[in-house]
Amino acid sequence: MAGESATGGVAPSGPATAPGARALPEPCPDGAPGCVDGTIAELRARMATLGRGCAHHSTFALAYLRTTEGFKWGRDAGFFSDDTWVNREGALFAEYYYRAYDDWAAGRRSAVPLAWLAALDAARDRRLTGAGDLMLGMNAHINRDLPYVLASVGLTAPDGSSRKPDHDKVNEILAEVTDPILAELIARFDPYGFDVGISPDTVLGLIITWREQAWRNAVRLTNARTPFARAVVELDIESTAAATAAGLATLTSYVPPFTGPGPRAAHCAAHHADPPPLAYPFGLPPAY
Predict the structure, then answer these.
(1) Whole-prediction pTM value?
(2) Is residue 135, in this structure, part of any structural domain at all?
(3) Where are the alpha helices (H) located in 155-261, listed in sequence order?
């Protein structure tokens, strides 16, 4: 099945090689408060296209949108010590997702990181449960993208203090939005693919572990003093994220003829525009 693009593009299949890590320019270098509003607007537009088409990519897209809305709520509630820095980080983080998806949708496979290829191809082919699509997207974005983002925006403040406390504050926001996100994914997109016998707390713990490792990898990138040293760290980041994607895919693949995407597709066709069943800390957002 052709890949659904948020802009209507098609991602052809074909061989791919691991691209070198490309540093993306910051879309919001001044860290203005409106940065997150722009990110939410873009994520909402992409989610609307994917969700209305019941693309399997919509699972991660919805989770990313709601997490970013939660990030804005946390920022406005005073979670962070340096809003400018977290605004910059959030905008650049989203840019890595846009670039991976758009390169994939346009068929530029050699430009797409391997972890993202695994996630996006699996969603296109409807090979995984909703839990699988979600976790492969999160793996690509956290284990692969986040170290580069953190290293780019800087790990220390001008006074030499660490940015780590603000990085860790995001975990508190994730704890607040995990249950509503899962409830919304189940109600609107896939009531069959999230009953995997693993508690939401366990999933949250895994994500927090990934975020801790992303910080450590960002430190390694920052401390790499030669191109060779940097390349070694990048290879480790890329290969580990790709291997994690492969393991997650094995665990969450459909098993024809016993299981498949048909019931999920029928449910989504009937319910994708339903309102979220649980309120988020920032309120009850519209479906689209």
Answers:
(1) 0.92
(2) yes
(3) 164-188, 200-223, 227-252
